[in-house]
Amino acid sequence: MNSSVIVFPGSNCDRDIAVALEKLQFKNNMVWHKETSLPKSDLIVVPGGFSYGDYLRSGAIAAKSNILNEVIKAANDGCLVLGICNGFQILTETGLLKGVLLRNKNLKFLGKDIHVKAINTDNKFCNKYKKDQILKFNIAHNEGNYFTSSEHLKELEDKNLIPFKYCDENGIINEETNPNGSLNNIAGIFNDKKNILGMMPHPERMVDDIISNNDGVNLFTSLLN
Q1: Confidence class of residue 225 from pLDDT cuts 50, 70 and 90?
Q2: Which of 13, 79, 85, 167 is catalytic?
Q3: Is 85 part of the annotated catalytic residue set?
């Protein structure tokens, strides 16, 4: 399976995701943001980090990069697209995903391990997880507070477009188990066709028991599946 990781000035998780993909036998390319064409790609990853130092607004400048025109075209043609953390922010700035990522509720940067529950596993990204499985991922963000209109929030819930929600180690989902204030404890969302996934937690950091855990592996093996 061919993957492409988009690299921006300020990206700091591009190598992490590349290592994860290559470990799981993806044939990966690193694509600089100024490029105007994409290599053949079954999966495009917009990685985490602080593109352009988060100036103006997280992801706002990166969303205007040359290569994003090609990412948008590929996404609209059905290519799988994964945006992680800053990548999620960039996808909302391009309009590929609806909503916005606001400042965390406590107005502080969060960098820690958290738990999420797998809400929807009937999709190409999550089919190797069990429904309601509790996973431990890492978060590292200042603007991870997902917000959208009440109409779109209802659509997300009704159409089962929420793959993960923040919870505790027992799977309880409530305000106390919400690290950043996201509506309905949302940790990630799909577009209508479920070929685009944006998520704040970092699955690529959870692919090795020696340094973390392997809870992120099944996201990538789901795609290979």
Answers
A1: confident
A2: 85
A3: yes
